[in-house]
């Protein structure tokens, strides 16, 4: 079986939820994430609560990343594995795309926005 497995993805989502619940959220490129949140009328201060709800909605079947997961080239999360998901989110009210890494008990948000593949027809 190719990585990540269903079980591994469940574990990564659990870790991400735990990090968000404990307030350990970081942004790899804050300007990009803030801009994407503004596009869907979400304030940064509302993000932790929404993100906990959203992560509860995501399952391993929503995984859209590569197998095996890509490694980041960004300095702040260099060589960390990236996990990408796309799902119909009740918390956000859109089909969302969420890519993150886990490092030092924190969730590092790489991307969080409306799923752009829908706009491209696929």
Count of helical stretches: 3
Which percent band covers the strand fraction? Answer: 15-25%
What is the general shape? globular
Oligomer: single chain
Strand order of the largest sheet: 1-4-3-2
Mean pLDDT: 94
Q: Determine the fraction of residues in helical runs and give it as a percent range.
A: 25-40%
CATH architecture: 2-Layer Sandwich
When the domains are counted, the total is 1
Task: Please identify the structural class as seen in this structure.
Answer: alpha+beta
> Could you say what the CATH topology is called?
YaeB-like fold
- CATH C-level: Alpha Beta
Largest sheet: 4 strands, mixed
Number of strands: 4
Low-confidence stretches: none
N/C terminus separation: 26 Å
Radius of gyration (Å): 13 Å
- Give helix and strand order, one letter per element, not per position: HEHHEEE
Q: Features of this protein?
A:
alpha+beta, single chain, 122 residues, 22% strand, 4 strands, four-stranded mixed sheet, 30% helix, YaeB-like fold, 3 helices
